[in-house]
Design goal:
The chain has helices spanning 3-21, 209-226, 375-380, 385-388, 401-412; strands spanning 40-41, 44-46, 60-68, 74-80, 84-92, 98-103, 131-137, 147-149, 158-168, 182-187, 190-196, 254-262, 267-274, 296-303, 310-315, 326-332, 345-348, 356-364, 395-400. It is α+β, with helices and mostly antiparallel strands. A 6-stranded mixed beta sheet has the order 1-11-10-4-7-8. A 5-stranded antiparallel beta sheet has the order 2-3-9-5-6. β5 and β6 (98-103) form a beta hairpin. α1 crosses α2 (209-226). The longest helix is centred in the N-terminal third of the chain and has 19 residues, at 3-21.
């Protein structure tokens, strides 16, 4: 078999696998997805619009590379560190659970290059002096060689690599001002460099049998995973630790608490809490600024129905805070939202045809000093976040739109709320 045919077999089959078979845990690909000539890499992209599934954050972009590897096969990646708040490489099995993660500050730069996530002075280096290489391997990974484990023992020989980039310095460049990593397959003795796809494959905006199967497969996989996210007795309008994020492409550097909401005409949900400090990289601060409590945090509004798309997010740098560092979010339908208010951050309800929503608060990479009050500590210790997070715990009150308009958040947190 020629190198080109090997890569076509893997890329075509694994793309279909991601679109259908792998998402329903089929052991082998059965449908050949359409591929660009020649075969291409990073076929799937999610940014809150394209492939909007599994509670994504709108301030992040996710590129997906499906793969199939034999015992001695590998995939080599070559790229440049992005100009962004955060960057990582993550591998997942067909159960959509994490196999391995290699984060920005864990990646060793190429000789003669610098990593801006370990030394702030390297932020000013041009991309050709911020180079790195990493390798997906089928067995145990050697971190000193920037290796990432691609497969679990005794599991299907297929999986997914996701590249995440959060808050690029230039909002017009989702990949952080650098190209997506080059991909070189070493399969069955063949070595083939594969270029990024000209266009991502989005099942939602595509037609034909592959797209139809992909949509059904994604819905089934995400619905199965999300069904275990909350316990049946989870109270309304209270932030709790999810029972599980398994099967939702979790990022180990993020932890989440969430509150379920129900729409009622003339009512808004008001959320109050203290905002952790963060490195405002859009303002020129280094992502590894030491005087910060988290690398990133955000509040996102999501549909509580498969495939669990995001409605809107407010990242840390997009959130208004008062002089004491407290935020006020208001979530509601357009007709119920307040007029412009410099003290409030609005999150739209989205379609009221979806009556159930879920608000998600993310904490990413808390500092050692902040860790005891982070979401991470709450989940690690199985502690009620309302107890462990102190003022950083977000409290929710339902409130009539007229009360909020007249009295602000104070009126919403006084007395019984409807």
């Amino acid at each position: 078999m020629s190198p080109r045919s090997i890569v076509r077999r893997v890329l075509g089959g694994s793309a279909a696998l991601c679109a259908a078979a792998a998402l329903v845990a089929a052991p082998t690909p059965a449908i050949a997805a359409p591929v660009d000539p020649p075969p291409c890499a990073w076929r799937f992209m999610s940014d809150g619009q394209s492939l909007d599934v599994a509670f994504p954050d709108t301030n992040a972009t996710y590129w997906v590379l499906p793969y199939a590897l034999g015992p001695r096969d590998s995939i080599e990646l070559s790229g440049a560190f992005p100009s962004a708040r955060y960057f990582s490489l993550n591998t997942y099995g067909t159960d959509l659970d994490t196999i391995d993660t290699l984060r920005d500050d864990q990646i060793l730069p190429d000789p003669g290059s610098g990593n801006p996530f370990t030394d702030a002075d390297n932020r000013s280096l041009p991309p050709d002096q911020r180079r790195w290489h990493a390798t997906l391997v089928s067995g145990p990974a050697d971190r000193t060689r920037n290796e990432i484990r691609a497969l679990r023992d005794d599991a299907a020989p297929v999986g997914f690599l996701i590249v995440r980039v959060y808050v690029p310095d230039d909002p017009g460049s989702l990949s952080g001002g650098v190209p997506l990593p080059d991909v070189t397959y070493r399969l069955g003795g063949a070595t083939v460099l594969v270029q990024p796809c000209s266009q991502p494959f989005d099942p939602k905006s595509s037609s034909g049998p592959v797209a139809d199967v992909a949509r059904r497969g994604i819905d089934r996989a995400i619905e199965t995973a999300a069904s275990g996210t909350f316990r049946s007795d989870t109270p309304e309008a209270v932030f709790v630790n999810p029972a599980s994020t398994s099967g939702l492409f979790p990022n180990g550097d993020n932890k989440y608490i969430a509150a379920q909401l129900t729409h009622r005409l003339g009512r808004v949900a008001v959320v109050r809490g203290k905002a952790p400090s963060f490195p405002d990289t859009r303002a020129g601060v280094s992502a590894i600024e030491p005087d910060r409590q988290v690398r990133y945090w955000s509040m996102c509004q999501n549909d509580l129905v498969s495939p669990y798309p995001v409605v809107a997010c407010a990242a840390d740098f997009q959130t208004r805070v008062d002089d004491d560092g407290w935020y006020t979010f208001v979530v509601g339908a357009p007709e119920d939202l307040p007029a412009s208010d410099s003290t409030v951050t609005v999150l739209p309800w989205g379609s009221t045809d979806v009556p159930k929503k879920v608000l998600i608060l993310r904490n990413m990479l808390p500092s050692p000093d902040f860790y005891p009050m982070s979401v991470q500590a709450s989940q690690s210790g199985d502690i009620d976040p309302a107890v462990s997070m102190g003022p950083y715990y977000p409290t929710v009150a339902y409130c009539s739109a007229s009360t909020f308009a007249a009295r602000g958040y104070h009126g919403c947190f006084e007395g019984p709320q409807s």
